[in-house]
Design a protein that fits this description.
The protein has one domain (27-305). It is mainly α and 306 residues long. It is globular. The protein contains nine helices and four strands; from the N terminus they run H-H-E-H-H-H-E-H-E-H-E-H-H. Helix 2 (35-58) runs parallel beside helix 9 (277-305). It has a two-stranded parallel sheet with strand order 1-2. The chain has a two-stranded antiparallel ribbon with strand order 3-4. Helices cover 39% and strands 5% of the residues.
Length: 306
C-alpha cells in the first residue's frame, strides 16, 4: 500500500519584498553601542597590543585571532566553548562573568582550582572558554556601571552576534548562503586556521541587542545578517577593523540582491556612557592579567604531571 504521507506539503514562504517589509518593522528597535565606546576599546587594545600579543603567544593562544590591528575584541583570549571542548568545564557552575576570578578575590591564590575551572583554562586556542557571560560585561558596565547583574534579557532583549565567531557556524552560514544563491561569502578563504574568528565572540563591533518578541539572535541568516553587518560597518568601520585576516573588504561587496542599510530606519540613540570607559578598560586589563596567570599555572601543572 502506497504511503501518501512521506513528504511535507509545500508551504508558502515570504518573498524578498515581504521579508524586507518585516525586517523594516524590526530595525528601529535594535540597540547599538556608541561608536565612541567601540573606538575606546580599539584604542586601548592598540596601546597594549604588542605586550598582550606576546603574552598570548607565550601560552599557545594565537594572538591574530584576537588582537589584529585595531581589533575591537573586549576580552582577548576568551572564546565561547564549543563541541570539541570538555563539557565538564561548564556542567557544574553558572560562574561569575570573570571566570570566578580568584586572583581578584585573593592575591595569594594557589593553583588548587576546581576541576571544571581547570578545564576552562586548559581549552586550546584560548585563555578561557566561556558560557556566554563575557559578551554581556561591556554592555552592563556602560549602561549600569557594573560588570555583573541583570542584563537586557530581563527587559525583553536578546544578545546577537552579527558574524559567526566559531568555525562550525561560519560553515553553516557559508553553506546556507550558497544554497540560497547568495554568494557574498564566496570570497572568504576556504581554509583558515582553526579558531580564526574567536575574537569576534566578545568584539564590541560584533554585538547588538534584538527584541526577543520579534526574532531570536539565531535568526540572523541570509539578507538580515548581511544587512546588520553592513549597518555595524557604517557605525564602526572608521574606528576599528571589524574582522581579522584582512577580510573586512568583504563588507563592501555589493550585488543586486543586497539590501542597503540606508533603506531602513534605525535607532540612533546609541547605548552606553563613554565616561565609564576608563574604568572598564582598566578592569579588562586586570582581567587579562588574571587570565594569563591562571593559564600559566594550568600549563605549569600539566608540565609537571608529564
Amino acid at each position: 500500500m502506497t504511503n501518501n504521507y512521506t513528504h511535507w506539503n509545500e508551504w508558502d514562504l515570504p518573498n524578498d519584498e515581504q521579508l524586507k517589509a518585516f525586517v523594516k518593522l524590526v530595525t528601529p528597535y535594535i540597540k547599538w553601542l556608541s561608536p565612541d565606546i567601540v573606538k575606546s576599546i580599539a584604542d586601548f587594545n592598540e596601546q597594549h597590543r604588542t605586550v598582550w600579543s606576546a603574552q598570548l603567544n607565550s601560552v599557545g593562544v594565537p594572538m591574530e585571532s584576537y588582537l589584529w590591528e585595531r581589533s575591537p575584541c573586549v576580552f582577548p583570549g576568551v572564546r565561547r566553548h564549543g563541541s570539541g571542548d570538555k563539557p565538564s568545564a561548564f556542567k557544574d557552575a553558572k560562574r561569575k562573568p570573570t571566570g570566578v576570578s580568584a586572583l581578584e578575590k585573593d592575591p595569594h591564590w594557589t593553583p588548587s582550582l576546581p576541576q571544571h575551572l581547570r578545564e576552562m583554562y586548559r581549552q586550546k586556542a584560548s585563555l578561557a572558554t566561556d558560557d556566554n557571560s563575557y559578551p554581556y560585561e561591556l554592555w552592563r558596565y556602560v549602561v549600569r556601571g557594573v560588570k555583573s547583574g541583570p542584563d537586557p534579557r530581563n527587559v525583553g532583549f536578546h544578545l546577537a552576534h552579527l558574524f559567526p565567531h566559531n568555525d562550525y557556524t561560519l560553515k553553516q552560514l557559508r553553506d546556507s548562503s550558497e544554497k540560497s544563491g547568495d554568494h557574498w561569502l564566496g570570497g572568504w578563504p576556504e581554509v583558515l586556521p582553526e579558531y580564526s574568528f574567536s575574537g569576534l565572540y566578545t568584539s564590541a563591533a560584533n554585538l547588538c541587542f534584538i527584541p526577543a518578541e520579534l526574532m531570536r539572535p539565531t535568526d540572523l541568516n541570509g539578507p538580515l545578517r548581511r544587512l546588520m553587518l553592513q549597518k555595524a560597518h557604517s557605525l564602526y568601520g572608521d574606528v576599528c577593523n571589524m574582522f581579522p585576516h584582512g577580510l573586512q573588504a568583504l563588507l563592501h561587496k555589493e550585488d543586486e540582491k543586497q539590501w542597503h542599510h540606508t533603506e531602513f530606519s534605525w535607532d540612533e540613540r546609541f547605548t552606553g556612557d563613554i565616561g565609564r570607559m576608563d574604568a572598564f578598560n582598566s578592569y579588562r586589563a586586570g582581567e587579562f592579567t588574571n587570565l594569563i596567570a591562571q593559564k600559566q599555572i594550568v600549563l605549569a601543572g600539566e608540565s609537571v604531571s608529564e
